[in-house]
């Protein structure tokens, strides 16, 4: 992964290992989510990883040995600096399961990951409903309202 350089006064989104043809819509997904939360300064790295890497991240940080679709880490809250990891294979499987293209699934996970950085959680039903309502609204705007 690239070294993270924080530049005060500027914002950036970095997509690592993502298909180049998807970057435009993924940036829109991230920017719409950040705008909805009134986040103006940010530096976020999005990284596609293997299932093995995702399992290792879950084991290390959550103490569970499983593969999840996305994990978010807010590294410097004051400056909204974070990393979001997406499992490539898991996201492809989910796309098929939910009837999405892989591009749509990645956009959904970008939105989901950014909302996690913003403090949303999906561990309890009430919080999950609030988070999923918000991400569904952003997702529908990107793919169905334009």
Structure write-up:
Helices cover 49% and strands 18% of the residues. Mean pLDDT is 92; it is low at 1-8. It is built from five helices and four strands; from the N terminus they run E-H-E-H-E-E-H-H-H. Helix 1 packs parallel to helix 4 and helix 4 packs across helix 5. The protein has helices spanning 23-36, 51-62, 88-98, 102-117, 125-143; strands at residues 12-16, 43-49, 70-76, 81-87. It has a four-stranded mixed β-sheet with strand order 1-2-4-3. The protein is globular and about 35 Å long. Strand 3 (70-76) and strand 4 (81-87) form a beta hairpin. The chain has 146 residues and is of the alpha/beta class. The chain has one domain: 3-Layer(aba) Sandwich (Collagenase (Catalytic Domain)).
Quick description:
With 146 residues, the chain is of the alpha/beta class.
Annotation, overall tally of beta strands: 4
Provide mean pLDDT, rounded.
Answer: 92
| Strand line-up in the sheet with most strands | 1-2-4-3
Largest sheet: 4 strands, mixed
What is the C-alpha radius of gyration, as a whole number of Å? Answer: 14 Å
Strand content: 15-25%
**CATH topology category name:** Collagenase (Catalytic Domain)
What are its keywords?
146 residues; alpha/beta; Collagenase (Catalytic Domain); 4 strands; globular; disordered N terminus
